[in-house]
C-alpha cells in the first residue's frame, strides 16, 4: 500500500485530531492541565487496541506507555520503543494569543510541532495497522512523557526500564529544518552556583562581604570554561535584599551544553576547583539536573542505514545532522540502545510564537513511521 496517499486522503482527520490535542493546553508544570491532555490522548490510544500502562506521579503529570498489539502474540519477542511527549513550554491561556490554525500548507499553534503532531503520527500508524489487520514483526511500545520539557528523574527511570526490553528506539521529536534526522544531541547540565557573604550596612560595606560581587567574579570564571563547543548560559541570577544592605547571599542558574560526557566531567572538575575571591566569602555548586548527550555509535548508525533504506522505498531521502537541544532520545542512547531521533515532521519556531509544522511533512513522516513499524 502507498501510505503517503493513504494518509493524504485522511488529512482532514489528522488535522482534526491534532487540533483536539493542541486545544488541551499542557504546560509541563501544570499537573492538572497536562493530565487532562494525557487523558484525552490515552483514550485515543485505547481505540487502536493498545494496552495502557499508567505510572501515577505526585508532582508531574502521569506517565503512560501504550503497548500494541495487546496482548502481543507469543511469537513476538522483540520490541520497538517510540518516544513522545504531551507537555509543552506554553502556559494555559497561550492558545488565545497563539491560536491553532491552518494556512496553506502550514499548521500553527502552541506545541503543534514540539511535539503534539508526533502523537498524531503514532496514533494514526497504530490505527492503520489495526484497521488493515496488519501485524507488526515486533511489539510497539509508545511512551507518552508529561515532563519532557523540564526533565524528570521519574520519566528517565521509565525510559531506561523500557529500553531494557527494547531492540531499538525511535524518538518522534521534530526533524531538523529540511527533514534531517538528529544523530547527535548535546547533553545538558543545569547548575546552581551559590555565593555566601556577610550582611552589613551599605554605609560601611567594609564590615560585610558582598555575595553578589563574589557571584559576579565566579560567573566570569565559569564563562572562561567555555571551550570545545561546551557552552554556558547564565539564565537566572538572584541575590540581595535591599539597596542599603550588603548582600549576604546570591545565586545563579546555569545551563551547560556539551557534546561528549568527557566534556561534562572536565567542566564539573573545574567547578570543584572554584575558590572564593573575597575574604569571608563561600562558594558552592549543586547539579539540579543532567541530560546525557546523544553520541554517535555503531548500533545507531546501523539502525539509521536500515531506516534510510525503508525511506528510499517511499522516495524519501533521509540525512542526519546534529542539534544543541536535548531530548529523551539522549536518555535512551546512553543505555547503548540503537536510537534514532527527529523522525517527527518538519517545521519551524520551536519554543517561539511562530511555531508551526509543514503539513506535507506530517503526512510523509506518518507514512514513513508506518512502514518502519511494519518492516523493521
Describe this structure in words.
With 376 residues, the protein is α/β, with parallel strands linked by helices. It has helices at 3-9, 11-23, 31-47, 94-97, 112-131, 153-163, 211-223, 261-272, 298-312, 328-333, 359-375; strands at 51-55, 63-68, 79-85, 101-103, 106-108, 139-145, 168-171, 181-185, 187-196, 231-239, 249-258, 282-291, 320-323, 339-340, 347-348, 356-358. It has 2 domains: 3-186 and 294-375, Zn peptidases (Aminopeptidase, 3-Layer(aba) Sandwich), CATH 3.40.630.10; 187-291, Alpha-Beta Plaits. Strands 1-2-6-3-7-14 form a 6-stranded mixed sheet, with helices on both faces. Strand 1 (51-55) and strand 2 form a beta hairpin. The chain is elongated, with a radius of gyration of 23 Å. It starts with a helix and ends with a helix.
Descriptive terms for the model:
376 residues, alpha/beta, Aminopeptidase, Alpha-Beta Plaits, six-stranded mixed sheet, 11 helices
